[in-house]
Amino acid sequence: MEKLSCIGCGAEIQTENKEKAGYTPAASVKKAEETGELYCQRCFRLRHYNEIVDVSVTDDDFLKLLHDVGDSDALVVNVVDIFDFNGSVIPSLSRFVAGNDVLLVGNKKDILPKSVKDSKVTQWLRERAHEEGLRPVDVILTSAQNHQAIKELIDKIELLRQGRDVYVVGVTNVGKSTLINAIIKEVSGGRDVITTSRFPGTTLDKIEIPLDDGSCIFDTPGIIHRHQMAHYLTAKQLKYISPKKEIKPKTYQLNPEQTLFFGGLGRFDFRSGTKQSFTAYFDNSLNIHRTKLAGADAFYAKHAGGLLIPPAEKELETFPKLVRHDFTVRDKADIVYSGLGWVCVPAKEDQPVKISAWAPEGVGLMVRKALI
């Protein structure tokens, strides 16, 4: 069959995967044979609803795009998920952006408990960025979903770009496209003033949004991080790991040799140390179950897919097995399950805590300085 391309962005048309560039319903392809105009669903929604939808690209395509960013004189707006910072960091971004300024945007600030001060989160994000080799010129917190601090973000971008183009980059699921849509709505006052002609979709790797002075904001597709929990779940199950409202921390007094299960997605073993409190930060809908370490293996084998969900029982055969990672914690720190949440461990130098954390094979686990 002859290859078809979207006349809006140039992506090769395909009808199989909604998450990939060029997706178009088969019915639309057939209709286009009559009209002679074939747009992918992303461009169609952009043209008719002023709505930008994120798409995923291959690692090679994303690396090429980052090289394009480095070759240009631009402001780079790097959007990360505050709830899943480590899972939303772009590896080696500092190397690709070359000498360009980076504005770090921490999205989903509304997910954190209201008691957490913005100033502390901002400083924490800056420190974590430095650990990744990134030196942002500034850090700002927003909530694209609730339109929090969008005007402040627009003002900050305008101040820092100094007439240059703006590239918005981020991995999938950080809310990057929602953020751009919020910016468009803020600028337009909610009116449909942004017309098709103002979105000249360039290539499949980015969409350009013209600015008044002739520069552009480039919306770039996100790359999937394979070590994120979302990569292993169905769309229906994502509600257990993607908080839409303020998370409610849950604190557990644990004795050594007790275990917490986070649905069937993760496990936390308190192996040795003094009796103490551990605080879990996960989506409110995820069931957390406490049991004894001695019977934890048998408990999981019996209840995974039932008491411990997700995954559902019918999905257990294809769901990765849980893999153990051992940690000795000597200072207050978070044990992070990439894309799922974290447990705060209140350890001290003279009272080290030994932990075994379990996550599906392929999902990242790490220790970091405590966020809260």
From TrEMBL:
GO terms for molecular function: GTP binding. Residues 63-226 form the CP-type G domain. InterPro entries: G_CP_dom, GTP-bd, GTP-bd_ribosome_bgen_YqeH, Mito_lipid_metab_GTPase, NOA1/YqeH-like_C, P-loop_NTPase. This is Ribosome biogenesis GTPase YqeH. Gene3D superfamilies: P-loop containing nucleotide triphosphate hydrolases. NCBIfam families: GTPase_YqeH.
